[in-house]
Specification:
It contains ten helices and no strands. By secondary structure, the chain is mainly alpha-helical. Helix 7 crosses helix 8.
Length: about 180
């Protein structure tokens, strides 16, 4: 059995490398999911990036597994200072929002708001805004905490970020300045 940390390393950071092989192995041998999760703590940024991709794919195929890891993603992975982990969290929160407990949802909301305010990576910002766009419709209490930042991002030099901010402002029923 080749360790996942070896399978997920090397090559160009934008390539999947052997990520799909890892996903297939985990789906065939669920006992190896923990090994995949532990790859988030690798010193290798590429391994962590591919781990995010692999976890999202595994949970897409086996959404019931997300419940087992939700608290750990919220408590541990949210502390990771890597944009790919932040955008993956936002995706997972959106894709599995019905599986989050009210407490997990509140913590996830805090993570998304923190990402919106502190992150500069365009993908992490876009995914956080996309998730918040859906969530503000169900929880208007979020709006005062993100409105100013969303307005500022509406003027972002990156078109996708500016468009995401406008969509978020529209969902909040707030017009951009």
């Amino acid at each position: 059995m080749e360790p996942f940390r070896h399978m997920l390393t090397g090559g160009h950071p934008n390539s999947l490398g052997r990520t799909l092989d890892v996903v297939e192995i985990v789906l065939d041998k669920p006992s190896r999911m923990e090994e995949l999760y532990q790859c988030y703590f690798s010193d290798d940024e590429i391994v962590r990036l591919r781990t995010s991709n692999a976890c999202r794919r595994v949970f897409k195929e086996r959404p019931d597994w997300f419940e087992t890891y939700a608290d750990r993603f919220i408590g541990e992975i949210a502390q990771t200072d890597q944009p790919s982990a932040k955008w993956t969290l936002a995706q997972l929160f959106l894709e599995h929002q019905r599986r989050l407990t009210p407490e997990q949802r509140a913590e996830a909301t805090e993570i998304l708001i923190r990402t919106l305010h502190e992150e500069d990576d365009w993908i992490a910002l876009n995914m956080a805004m996309k998730t918040l766009e859906r969530w503000v419709k169900q929880d208007a209490a979020i709006i005062p905490r993100i409105e100013i930042r969303a307005r500022a991002l509406g003027d972002d030099r990156r078109k996708s970020v500016a468009n995401g901010a406008r969509k978020l402002l529209n969902a909040m029923d707030v017009s951009p300045l």
